[in-house]
Amino acid sequence: MKRAVVIGGGIAGIQASLDLADRGFEVHLVEKSPSIGGHMAQLDKTFPTNDCSMCILSPKMIMCADHANIKLHTYSEVEGVSGDFPKFKVTIKEKARYVDVTKCTGCGDCIAKCPVKVPWEFEEGLAQRKAIYLPFPQAVPRKVTIDGDHCRMILSKKCGVCKKVCQAGAIDYDQKDKLVDVEASAIIVATGFELMDTSVMSQYCLGVCKDVVTSLQLERILSASGPTGGHLARPSDHQEPKKLAFIQCVGSRDSHTHGYCSSVCCMYATKESILAREHAPGLEATIFYMDMRATGKGFQEFVSRARQNYGVRYIRSRPAKVQSPDGGSGVLVNYETRGLSGESVTEEFDMLVLCPALIPSKGAKDLSKALRVDLDEDGFIDTPDLARPVDTPRKGILACGFISGPIDIPDSVSQASAAAARAAELIEGGGK
Ligand SMILES: Cc1cc2nc3c(=O)[nH]c(=O)nc-3n(C[C@H](O)[C@H](O)[C@H](O)COP(=O)(O)OP(=O)(O)OC[C@H]3O[C@@H](n4cnc5c(N)ncnc54)[C@H](O)[C@@H]3O)c2cc1C
């Protein structure tokens, strides 16, 4: 059976699907949100070349949707898995969108008229979306979804505006979740990561100090399609910051939270510092770090360029406390200077960016139970055989991208191609 299920539609799942589909396999790509794309869709540019993230990702998303061998199951999750290699049965729950996707043209008339506003996940809460929405402008598929937790019509039968304005007749408030069974010979898990909720670490003041944001929020602020139209503005008063600081390893490499290194933060903080300086000439960026992990091709040169050409200040220190001056704009960062003289210094910045631990995506535990594969001690899918780095111990179940451990985009793509090749090898070679 030349059929595989890929779970997770970020860059890793997309690449694995395309590779398998190009080899003639039928692929069912299951993505829990209404669009494929994952975190790469939220990034402005990518290190170390600072290429536009969407310019690389978007063509791949479209190729996935248009590929004759790929069936997209967006807004869907795996409900159960039975059987063994080479014949798994995967039950997929396609959640009700309350929209007939065969009729929706993605015109947006319904969005314009919807009266309900809620925080927008894609914009990391920095903007609002409507209860009927497209997750982001380049979403694939370009079909709207009604958020049943906030739609007045779904909750209390009081509204119906979107149905009135939809000329395609696509709105269907009675739509129900649907279960679909797919038989497949291999399953590739590519469900990625999420940011640790660092508001629980009160010393960093996230959620209390207005000008403390996360690194992913800064990606959206820097993005031309983001909530500030690409203008670098701090949340408290929408002014352009002149002094910007980053704190690395917030929750990672910390025995109280997550002991492991999240792997991409040294480089993306360097990237975001360079981009911020390009947006705001004269801006002074400071990165508080534990030690610099610039291990990839061209990474050390990237850091040197940030220092020399963009004046990025790297301070080796783990700040102890962050406060807001009188609850207003800006932040006060307390840290200890390096060396024997180690003094305690409090420095004022206009805005502070936290680089939180990147942890396995929500639901990894349930998914691992359904697939009967183990998680490692940090909660990532265990791929213990170093000679077969994308294999789980269960034959026919493979993992790639961030869900198998912290990893950047180029390495996620290589791993995804490896997982696709391994799936093809297993299926065509009868399990060898
Ligand atoms: C602030 C920031 C900046 C970064 N900048 C860079 C950079 O410049 N360059 C670089 O190389 N890397 C960068 N990275 C790292 C990069 O984002 C990751 O390497 C990459 O996104 C990993 O891709 P992935 O497909 O494995 O995971 P993800 O991008 O997380 O995609 C996983 C997908 O799976 C879906 N999913 C999750 N659970 C389920 C489930 N149970 N069922 C179905 N679907 C599910 C998710 O909705 C998502 O679409 C950055 C990371 C951060 C946080």
Walk me through the structure:
The protein has 432 residues and is of the alpha/beta class. The chain folds into three domains: 3-95 and 177-192 and 361-428, FAD/NAD(P)-binding domain (3-Layer(bba) Sandwich), CATH 3.50.50.60; 109-165, no CATH class; 198-357, FAD/NAD(P)-binding domain. 24% of the residues lie in helices and 25% in strands. The chain contains ten helices and 24 strands. The chain has helices spanning 11-22, 53-66, 109-113, 152-156, 161-165, 215-222, 265-279, 299-310, 364-371, 409-428; strands at residues 3-7, 26-30, 45-46, 51-52, 70-73, 76-84, 87-94, 117-119, 128-130, 132-133, 145-146, 178-184, 186-189, 193-195, 212-214, 243-250, 284-289, 313-316, 321-323, 331-336, 344-349, 351-356, 358-360, 397-399. The strands form eight sheets. It has a five-stranded parallel β-sheet. A five-stranded parallel β-sheet has the order 15-22-16-17-18. Helix 8 links the parallel strand 17 and strand 18 (313-316). Helix 1 (11-22) packs parallel to helix 10. The chain is globular, with a radius of gyration of 23 Å. The chain starts with a strand and ends with a helix.
